[in-house]
Design the sequence.
């Protein structure tokens, strides 16, 4: 199976005396068409969530408020990324097993997804993840 790499990009900000503004354009700022948007908020600090990869869905994660950490495992590399700025975008490939944790109380984690919600597109079992994406 293919093994694409996650990527952290910085989209910068447009600012003037009124404040700041950041822009994400579908298939331009991020490399896929946005078909779904959801956001995770008021998460208890002790909570760890996610624990899955996908077959098809690509995602872009942005902490538009507060901060959180994301653990990634694509079977080649494991890493922990801190999302602490509304200009930082973490691009996840389908083969990125991801877990989000250490949510600040004010954290709003915005997720842009390439596909509509489909529970069949989730790989929630780590052993299956290794079977699907292992070499
Ligand atoms: P879940 O996938 O468990 O969140 P996480 O992976 O972060 O632990 O999602 C929680 C619930 O919300 C679950 O019942 C599925 C539902 N859900 C949707 O209906 N649509 C969506 O786009 C998402 C992300 C979740």
Sequence:
């Amino acid at each position: 199976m293919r093994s694409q790499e996650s990527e952290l990009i910085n989209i910068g900000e447009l600012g003037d005396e009124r404040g700041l503004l950041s822009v994400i354009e579908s298939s331009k700022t991020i490399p896929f068409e946005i078909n779904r948007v959801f956001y995770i908020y008021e998460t208890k600090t002790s909570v760890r969530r996610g624990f899955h990869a996908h077959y098809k869905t690509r995602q872009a994660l942005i902490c538009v408020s507060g901060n959180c950490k994301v653990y990634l495992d694509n079977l080649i590399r494991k890493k922990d990324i801190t999302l602490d700025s509304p200009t930082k975008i973490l691009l996840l490939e389908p083969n990125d097993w991801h877990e989000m944790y250490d949510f600040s109380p004010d954290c709003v984690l915005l997720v842009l997804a390439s596909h509509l919600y489909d529970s069949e597109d989730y790989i929630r079992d780590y052993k299956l993840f290794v079977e699907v994406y292992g070499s």
Q: What stands out?
A: Helices lie at 126-133. DSSP finds one helix and twelve strands in the chain. Residues 7-133 form a domain with the Jelly Rolls fold (CATH 2.60.120.10). The mean pLDDT is 96.
